[in-house]
């Protein structure tokens, strides 16, 4: 992105990484992507009782260009899938996806041809949140876990190495078709 | 055209609501910092219960898997042998998996369970980063060993026959004698 991406890795970046991580997690703006009943719980997350502005997340951005996090709340139909992908592509990096509820995470009880069996078929998911729908506390908990992940995100050359390592792990992972039991 | 009363009074009345709210107590729940208990019968993560001597209650009948509307449960039963006993009866659940990315926490499995082996806890902080980690194995779901319990496999420790064992009289006697500590697992 800016200067911090071009700096060589070394002593300087460890502090900058921590600082950048802190700033990133402290103004973590979600994009609105409410699709079903989970969206009602997501709205409650933003409403006074579970006040998401305590974590600097009160602005649900209708414009993906201003958003860092996409909370996919609800079942994604096949028809909605390209729209979801486009919203994700329009978001500037670093961007994160939270699959809220079982339908977004794996298709949930809608194991049929109309529903995408998990948004990880379309976009990379950083946090899976089970529940049908998850209560706002569960969403806050997932966001907090995501915050720790963002705090640890690296910069510059470290980040490039991290991405390469993640890619390697993903390529070597067992394909879902070869998995047994519920992971089939 | 609005009347004079509407033009002058209505903004005051409107902002009056804003002003009054300043003196009300905030309703915000400070969730990650102070956790409020859920409703006592909240449907949270599952738990596989044990008999007072540590044997599993699950008999591997798969009724929970059949009742599940989301096909989130996978059970594979196996037979107990005299050398390796996991549950008091003939069968036990050898493989027990719950996919929390399918489970809708409806509780139909709990209703279906004939031995009360499967119940739900109030734990709800389940979010994780991968699909694999959200498939809970039997080891993740089994209730912790309470004092007096022993890790299966082991033979029936309480009661002379099965009737004595299941009715809980032997367990009650053992607690009274002090050889087994009483606890939540010591019911029934």
TrEMBL record, chain A:
The keyword Transport applies. Binds 1 [4Fe-4S] cluster. GO terms for cellular component: plasma membrane; respiratory chain complex I. Its main location: membrane. Residues 37-146 form the NADH:ubiquinone oxidoreductase-like 20kDa subunit domain. It catalyses: a quinone + NADH + 5 H(+)(in) = a quinol + NAD(+) + 4 H(+)(out). Pfam families: Oxidored_q6 (PF01058). It comes from the Bacteria. The keyword Endoplasmic reticulum does not apply. Its cofactor is [4Fe-4S] cluster. [4Fe-4S] cluster binds at residues 37-38, 103, 132. Gene3D superfamilies: 3.40.50.12280. It is found in: Cell membrane. It is a peripheral membrane protein. It is an enzyme of class 7 (translocase). GO terms for molecular function: 4 iron, 4 sulfur cluster binding; iron ion binding; NADH dehydrogenase (quinone) (non-electrogenic) activity; NADH dehydrogenase (ubiquinone) activity; quinone binding. NDH-1 shuttles electrons from NADH, via FMN and iron-sulfur (Fe-S) centers, to quinones in the respiratory chain. The immediate electron acceptor for the enzyme in this species is believed to be a menaquinone. Couples the redox reaction to proton translocation (for every two electrons transferred, four hydrogen ions are translocated across the cytoplasmic membrane), and thus conserves the redox energy in a proton gradient. Belongs to the complex I 20 kDa subunit family. NCBIfam families: nuoB_fam (TIGR01957), PRK06411.1 (NF005012). This is NADH-quinone oxidoreductase subunit B.
Automatic annotation (TrEMBL), chain B:
It is an enzyme of class 7 (translocase). It is found in: Cell membrane. Keywords: 4Fe-4S, Cell membrane, Iron, Iron-sulfur, Membrane, Metal-binding, NAD, Oxidoreductase, Quinone, Repeat, Translocase, Ubiquinone. One of its GO terms (cellular component) is plasma membrane. One of its GO terms (biological process) is aerobic respiration. Gene3D superfamilies: 3.30.70.3270. The keyword Transferase does not apply. Transmembrane segments: none annotated. Binds 2 [4Fe-4S] clusters per subunit. It catalyses: a quinone + NADH + 5 H(+)(in) = a quinol + NAD(+) + 4 H(+)(out). [4Fe-4S] cluster 1 binds at residues 58, 61, 64, 113. Residues 48-78, 94-123 form the 4Fe-4S ferredoxin-type domain. [4Fe-4S] cluster 2 binds at residues 68, 103, 106, 109. GO terms for molecular function: 4 iron, 4 sulfur cluster binding; iron ion binding; NADH dehydrogenase (quinone) (non-electrogenic) activity; quinone binding. It is a peripheral membrane protein. Its cofactor is [4Fe-4S] cluster. Its EC number is 7.1.1.-. The keyword Iron applies. Belongs to the complex I 23 kDa subunit family. NDH-1 shuttles electrons from NADH, via FMN and iron-sulfur (Fe-S) centers, to quinones in the respiratory chain. The immediate electron acceptor for the enzyme in this species is believed to be ubiquinone. Couples the redox reaction to proton translocation (for every two electrons transferred, four hydrogen ions are translocated across the cytoplasmic membrane), and thus conserves the redox energy in a proton gradient. NDH-1 is composed of 14 different subunits. Subunits NuoA, H, J, K, L, M, N constitute the membrane sector of the complex. This is NADH-quinone oxidoreductase subunit I. It comes from Mumia zhuanghuii.
